[in-house]
Structure formats: C-alpha cells, structure tokens
Amino acid sequence: MSHELSLAPSPWLERWAHLLRPGMSALDVACGSGRHVRFLAARGLGVTAVDRDAEALAGLRTQAEVLVADLEGAPWPLAGRRFDLVLVTNYLWRPLWPALLASLAPGGLLLYETFARGNETVGRPSRAEFLLEPGELLRVCANLRIVGYEDGFLAEPQRFVQRIAALAPDPAAAAPLRIPLAG
Ligand SMILES: C[S@@+](CC[C@H](N)C(=O)[O-])C[C@H]1O[C@@H](n2cnc3c(N)ncnc32)[C@H](O)[C@@H]1O
C-alpha cells in the first residue's frame, strides 16, 4: 500500500482505548512495524503480534509475543487462542474472518479499520479485494454487540475508511455491560 501511514496510533484505537485494561490480552493482526503493539504494551496489555514481515517484527520482541506468519498462504497460526482484544488496521484478507471472530474471548473487543470502497478514486489500495464493501463490517459482526461503526472519508492522507468496534457475547456476564460513550 502506498499510503503514508502515520506512526501515531489510529484515532479509532484511541477512541476505544477506555475499554482496555492492564493485563488484558491483545492480538494485533498484520501489525506492521508495531505502532499499535507499542500503544497497547505501554498500557499494560499482553500483546501478541503477527505479520509476515520478520524485519518489521524484530524490533517488537521486547514488547510482545511475535509471530512471523503468512496469514494468506498458511493455516491460521493461533488456532485455539482467545484474546480480550483483536485489532486489525489497514489490512484485509476476507478468508480470515472466521479465525478472527473465533479469536475473541467472551466479551472480547474487535477493533477493525481499513480502506473501503471509494478509495480507488483517491489512491491505493484500489483493488476490490482490499476494499470493504458498504456495510461489510456490520454484516461480518452481525452476531457481536456493535458499539461503534463508521464508513466515511478521512482527509490526511485522503482515504475512504470503514471501521467498527464490536464486543463478543459473554454468557457469564451478570449485568448489562455499561459501555461509556464519548459525548
Ligand atoms: C498497511 S500495513 C498495516 C500495518 C499496521 N496494521 C498498521 O496499521 O500500522 C499491512 C501489513 O500487512 C502485512 N501483511 C500483508 N500480507 C500479509 C500476509 N499474507 N501475512 C501476514 N501479514 C501480511 C504487511 O507485512 C504489513 O505489515
């Protein structure tokens, strides 16, 4: 992808960070050079980071469990593992959906943000296989509790983005979870 992605954390992760607590487990899928690994580790989460780029992961070993894995050409490397947070930003490989959803612990939070249809008019990625369709994240998360969803345009750099925050069911939860909302 040719977009210059900021080294700062995604505002979408920052917006939902109040749901995170020290000691939680987090999985950052296709983590790249680790801007979110550092953000989460600094907040006391136990982070597992996966990417195929061994060089990018090398600098993260002191802060996370790192797994060099091809997520598209090999079996899911974390079968049976569950996480309190599953985070994916700027990456889309649709066959992973079942594995990502199965990786959520009861009550676990899915934060997903990536390029959406329309992005082909402003740059890359431009291929349909890398762009979310309108409402796609809502459909994928239909069995989760969706607490935040946006589908729109961001100015710097110009890009069409869709993003969701959704919680897995927790049958053991005694009372309705009070999700603090901004504003
Ligand atoms: C645009 S970067 C996003 C990095 C990070 N999530 C972020 O938002 O800063 C996409 C990442 O996906 C990784 N990736 C692409 N194809 C992959 C594959 N088949 N298996 C594992 N990682 C892959 C790349 O190595 C790259 O780090």
TrEMBL record:
Name this polypeptide is given: Class I SAM-dependent methyltransferase
Single GO molecular function: methyltransferase activity
Keyword Transmembrane among UniProt keywords: no
Family matches, as InterPro entries: Methyltransf_25 (IPR041698), SAM-dependent_MTases_sf (IPR029063)
SUPFAM superfamilies according to UniProt: S-adenosyl-L-methionine-dependent methyltransferases
Species whose genome carries this gene: Pseudaquabacterium terrae
Keywords of this entry: Methyltransferase, Transferase
GO BP terms, alphabetized: methylation
CDD domains: AdoMet_MTases
Residue ranges of every copy of the Methyltransferase domain listed in the record: 27-104
Presence of the UniProt keyword Metal-binding in the record: no
Domain of life: Bacteria
